[in-house]
């Protein structure tokens, strides 16, 4: 039986709850969008700065969306697969020689020189499912040598995006052993950065330029890129989060001095987390996905490719363990090709067949084809815990609370 669609009362309750979160000082502000059928509900609360300061949040506010970049990179990769420039299951060594002849740690917490040969080559499917062998090691405080080495190299998953060229990124990654054999474990994040670099090497173009030509311009996503140009900077709020340096955890604004700078093209277009966009731009991308790869008479992907992207690609073993558990939503989600996929409703935003993801800068966006719902919530309030922020819970609870 289809899940009830959002009612007018639920949408009003959503607007009220977000205003209450702003008034309580939990967020500076946010913009959100709910799409169902021909109906689009868009609203905003709060301002760019904490304590009701700065410009008002608006429908055209531009947000750094962090990890909901991943589905976009997945789509572009699959466009190249359909065209024959890339293959899902062939070795990527030819374009990424840094991944050839890999060494793998005998133990994920072992010394960096205690390794064995990899049991096989890395593939694009493994990059998009984040099972290629390197990513987030969920041990805190950091205790594994591979964690420390990734951080020192500047390629560890972080709220600060990599500050190096794609070739330097691959050089640094290639100098480290893998933490797991290709296809063995789910290790979050780095696979999508590597997939973006693979796309660049396959085409000879920057990831951002190719996304613009192949996706953003034809979809009408005029405010989406890996940086925000000077004439649009006034529409980009600061990123807020706890001050980890002074022990108080007071909320502060993060800027270039903290590694958050979207004012110019970055040295690396991060396919894992680098995009900035608006709710309407991301809606266009999401509608294309919900429509089976087509929008407004233009086809971007075949329906069969969308089906492959949005099915759970992980084995039960890959979805369990300390490095994967928190990304599987208490067993309610798996992972497809660049996108989280819903299996059962362990979270308000999960329904069987839904797909999307959450971003650490304070964003969440999911598409639910079975119920015809797209939900997009953008703030610039950093996630600080594996637990979903109260604002995410408010948003998705009201989206799915129809009587």
UniProtKB/TrEMBL annotation:
The keyword Transferase does not apply. The keyword Hydrolase applies. Gene3D superfamilies: DD-peptidase/beta-lactamase superfamily (3.40.710.10). InterPro entries: Beta-lactam-related, Beta-lactam/transpept-like, Diverse_Enzym_Activities. Its EC number is 3.-.-.-. Keywords: Hydrolase. Residues 17-384 form the Beta-lactamase-related domain. It is an enzyme of class 3 (hydrolase). One of its GO terms (molecular function) is hydrolase activity. Pfam families: Beta-lactamase. PANTHER family: BETA-LACTAMASE FAMILY PROTEIN (AFU_ORTHOLOGUE AFUA_5G07500), BETA-LACTAMASE-RELATED. This is Serine hydrolase domain-containing protein. It comes from Nitratireductor kimnyeongensis.
